[in-house]
Design brief:
Blueprint: E1 3-9, E2 12-17, E3 22-25, H1 40-62, E4 67-78, E5 86-97, H2 102-116, H3 118-125, E6 129-138
Parallel strand pairs: 5-6
Antiparallel strand pairs: 1-2, 2-3, 4-5
Protein name: Putative redox protein
Pfam family, one: OsmC
Length: about 140
């Protein structure tokens, strides 16, 4: 896996993935930025959410669960001072479908957290306290 991050100006950077996709990262005005992109630490949080959601959807589809929608809401706390790494992240999955089995959603979230999500496992190894919860929403409602 490869990526390139190129400085644009101020504290704006253009990140390009090895697969050819680009994203703009920038800071707030009080840090010399123009607020034109996602903050780098937000990128880590988004990557975690994407990695875990990828797993949850894949596990549910293999279990033949009728998933119509899935979102994960992430809430993070960071240490005071510099550096200010994440200290705690809570991931709340909201999975929608018609007739989803609660036990299958619970299993998918647990397997992602403990076995499959590389981002979760890496952050936990670095000392971040990760917690998970989920809600099953009936699509018929």
């Amino acid at each position: 896996m490869q990526a390139t991050v190129k400085w644009v100006d101020g504290v704006m950077f253009l990140g390009e993935s090895g697969s050819g996709h680009a994203v703009v990262m920038d800071g707030a005005a009080d840090h010399g930025g123009r607020n034109m992109g996602v903050r780098p630490m937000e990128m880590i949080l988004l990557g975690l959410g994407g990695c875990a959601s990828f797993d949850v959807i894949g596990i549910l589809k293999k279990a033949r669960q009728p998933v119509a929608d899935c979102r994960v809401e992430l809430e993070a706390e960071r240490a005071e001072g510099v550096p200010s790494p994440f200290t705690r992240i809570h991931m709340r999955f909201v999975v929608t479908g018609n007739g989803l089995k609660d036990v299958q959603v619970k299993r998918a979230v647990e397997l992602s957290a403990t076995k499959y999500c590389s981002a979760s496992i890496m952050l936990e190894a670095a000392g971040v306290a990760l917690t998970h919860s989920y809600e099953v929403v009936d699509a018929a409602q």
